[in-house]
Amino acid sequence: MNAPSASSLLVLLVALGAALVAGCSAGPVLPDLPPCPGPACTCTNPDDCTCASRSECALRCGDGCRFHCREDSTCAAACGNACNLECVEDTDCTLYAGDDSNVRCTASTCVVEIGARSAMNCRDRAMCEITCLGACTVACESGTTCRYRCGAGGPLVDGPGACE
Length: 164
Description:
The chain is mainly β. The protein has one domain (31-159). 12% of the residues lie in helices and 46% in strands. It contains 1 helix and 15 strands. It has one helix at residues 6-24, and strands spanning 41-45, 48-51, 56-60, 66-69, 74-78, 84-88, 92-97, 102-106, 109-115, 118-123, 127-133, 136-140, 145-150, 157-158, 161-163. It has an 8-stranded mixed sheet, with no helix packed on it. The model is unreliable at 1-25 (pLDDT under 50).
């Protein structure tokens, strides 16, 4: 039996490395919730979805995605850049949005990670925890519990504020 050549091993290592990188680029791990579209989640197209009231939904979508999580639901969403994500009326949301995105949490509990040049709005009794991965703004209305961090390892501080 012949030993594998150095070039064969190099090709195998490069292929394995590419497979690992591809697996890591799939985005954040979402909670195990029923996927959109589905019985509880309607989509006008793959990147514009609404989770029905009193439901559980998860969505992974691309750039320009829009996701709306409605009353008394549990939702998770991970999107590309330039997304608009919204959680309203007693929802529990875990959201990941890329650069140039807008996220709104109204009277809900939201854990959010947003990219550069993104904006987060925490309103009307909401409880928000935001991680900014780049320059972002965090707006917190009176009556909300709003904490944010600049960078994945940064300390949580009370909002409103901005990351440079």
